[in-house]
Structure formats: C-alpha cells, structure tokens
Amino acid sequence: MRALVTGGGSGIGRAVAHRLADDGYDITVADLDPFDVASELGATAIVLDVREEDEVAHAMSGLDVLVNAAGIGSTTSAPETPVEVWEDVFAVNARGTFLCCKHAIPGMRTRGGGAIVNVASVAGLVGLRNRAAYCASKGAVIAFTRALAVDHVDDRIRVNAVCPGTVETPWVQRLVEDAGESLDALRARQPLGRLGTPEEIADAVVYLVGAEFATGTILTVDGGLTAA
Question: Residue 168 needs a FRET pair 20 to 30 A away by CA distance; which of 109, 111, 159, 223 works?
Fold first, then answer.
C-alpha cells in the first residue's frame, strides 16, 4: 500500500509519515525539503511545491493513501493582509489541497478506492484573531473535503479532514513570534492546559486513514478549544 504525505518534511506531516511507515505503508515524503525524513524512514523523497500543477500531477500517481499536510499561515487581520499574502496562503492551503486531490483521485479510482485525509484547522471552524487569510483558507479545505466525500463515495474513495488546535511545532513557534504572541499565552487558552503534539494529530490522521465507515468526517483534535 502506497501513501504520500505532503508537508512530510516537518511537524505534523513528519509525524504522519512515521506513523504510516510503522503501519507498513510504502511512504513517499513530498515537501520542499523531504530528504531528512525520507532518509529516516528509508522512504521515497519528492521535492514538491503543491502550488505547481505540473509537479503535483507527476507526484500523485499510484496512491492508496494521500495525506495533505502542507500548509502555511498568516498573522494579520483582513485590512492588514496584503493581497499577495492572501493569495499565497490560499495557493498553498486551498489550491494545493485541491491539486493534490484532483490528480490523486483518478489513480485511486483505477485501483478500486483509497483514502484521503486533509489537514485543516480549528481556524476553519471558528474565528481566530489576526488569522484572516489562514481561517478562510482552512474553511475552504473543510468545505472541499465534504464535497469530495460526496462526489467520490461510489468510487470507494473516502475523504476526511482533521482539524488540529494549536500544536507545538517549529512552524507554530515562528507564527507566534511573527504575531508578537507567546506559547505560554497559547497554552493558557487551552482547556487541557497545554498544546498538542504532532504525534497526537498523526494518531487522528491514521485513524481516519483506516476508518472504513468514515467519509466527510471533520475530526477536531484541539484540547477542548472549540468546546470552551
């Protein structure tokens, strides 16, 4: 069984690649810098910019599982967001997810089915301050996930999404610094009193990969943030 993880070079994507490898999948790590993780796993490395359709089309053949974990963030409200930032966030988070699914699904259909898990965010479910472009892009990923699930149920292709809360990764640390916030403040707003780990999100992703009765599911893993 072949699985490809976009954004597999770090953070949540890296944790997902490790978990799927532990479960016996033949892993392809697709990222702008996939080599360290691919080397750790003895996996295939593909340098991939998910914004570029030609690159995506070449990478997506012959998959049983696709995990779309590539993403970027933003740290401004709408009036302070340059158009170029808005477009780049959507290009990676929304268009990138679309392109990967677009080009993976025909092969999955030929192979008799498959599983896609998109990494969205609680930012697509609730408003977060100074995250306008990011919230909008992740909301698009959630709606797109549901549309795909309905369109491809007869192809035996299940499409689900995980919505992480704040996860302790270098990427989040950079965003926090850009926004002038602190990790301690982020921890304090969590009902569980801490941030998530990439491995905890990977657990949710791997569950959805194997959950045969789940499609169109939006699984929130956020330490209770959206329940508070």
Answer: 159
Cβ-based burial of 181 (10 A; exposed 0-12, middle 13-18, buried ≥19): middle
- Rounded to 10°, the helix 96-110/132-151 angle is 20
Mean pLDDT over 86-93 rounds to 98
Q: What is the CATH number of the domain that holds 149?
A: 3.40.50.720
Q: Helix crossing, 11-22 with 198-210: angle to 10°? A: 50
Does residue 180 fall inside a structural domain? yes
What total number of domains does the chain contain?
Answer: 1
Residue with tokens 């914004």: 51
Distance CA 59, CA 72 (A): 20
What's the pLDDT tens digit per position in 46-82? 999 999 999 999 999 999 999 999 999 999 999 999 9
pTM: 0.95
- Whether 134 is catalytic: yes
Environment class of residue 108 by beta-carbon count within 10 Å: exposed (0-12), middle (13-18) or buried (19+)? buried
Q: What is the mean pLDDT of the chain?
A: 95
